Amino acid sequence: SITKSYRVFALIIQQGHITAAADRLITIVGMMNTLGGKLQARVQTAGVAGNDVATLTAALTDFSAKLTDAQKQAQDAVNVSSPLQPDNGDKTVMQSNIAALQKARADIVAGEKDLQAARKDVKTIIDGLKNMKASTTASSTTQTQTP
Predict the structure, then answer these.
(1) Which stretch, 64-73, 82-91, 95-104, has highest mean pLDDT?
(2) For the chain, what is the total number of helices (H) and then of strands (E)?
(3) Confidence band (pLDDT; 50, 70, 90) for 139?
(4) Are 126 and 61 in contact (CB under 8 A)?
(5) Terminal-to-terminal C-alpha distance of the chain
(6) By three-state DSSP, how is residue 119 classified?
(7) Is the pLDDT of residue 134 over 60?
(8) Lowest mean pLDDT among 36-45, 123-132, 135-144
(9) Angle of helix 54-81 relative to helix 8-48, nearest 10 degrees?
(10) Which terminal Cβ of the chain has fewer Cβ within 10 Å, N or C?
(11) What is d(CA 144, CA 71) in angstroms, rounded to the nearest whole number?
């Protein structure tokens, strides 16, 4: 009876790992949303200054979509893993728990990939803004010669 009733550790530890990973994803999404707001303001400023910001706007849209999906994946992982109950030696319950935990892990991995894609969008936006600043700075400086 001890081996059946103390199998709870096999489930609880995995649930803890999934919950911690999902929490990290949600925390990172929050930080990246803050960054996204700042980037959006800079892109709008660059657009008002007369720069072509179509590429940067598309990257911002993709960035936002990736963050939304990452947050959804993290929440799905928690929703799948949290209601699970210890199997107490029941093979059917054990198999359903394993399947649910594997789906939750797949959701976490998908969320991490979304964050990586969002990070690439941030790099695209920052590089685009740097190029715009360099070109406007170079064209706006003038030198005068004194006779």
Answers:
(1) 64-73
(2) 4, 0
(3) very low
(4) no
(5) 101
(6) helix
(7) no
(8) 135-144
(9) 160
(10) C
(11) 55
Residue 133 is predicted with a pLDDT of 65
Q: Which residues, other chains included, contact 49 with Cβ-Cβ below 8 Å and sequence gap of 6+?
A: 132, 136
In eight-state DSSP terms, residue 102 is H
Six-digit token string for 18: 């999934």
Residue written as tokens 């979304």?
114
Three-state SS at 138: helix
The Cα–Cα gap between 110 and 122 comes to 19
Q: Is the pLDDT of residue 100 over 80?
A: yes
Q: Measured between alpha carbons, how far is 87 from 84 in angstroms, rounded to an integer?
A: 9
CB 55, CB 128: distance < 8 Å: yes
Alpha helices in 49-87 (DSSP H): 54-81
CA distances in angstroms from 23 to 63, 103, 110, 117, listed in the order given: 20, 17, 14, 19
pLDDT band at 142, cuts 50/70/90?
Answer: very low
Angstrom distances, CA of residue 110 to CA of 24, 26, 77, 104: 14, 13, 10, 10
R_g of the chain computed on alpha carbons: 24
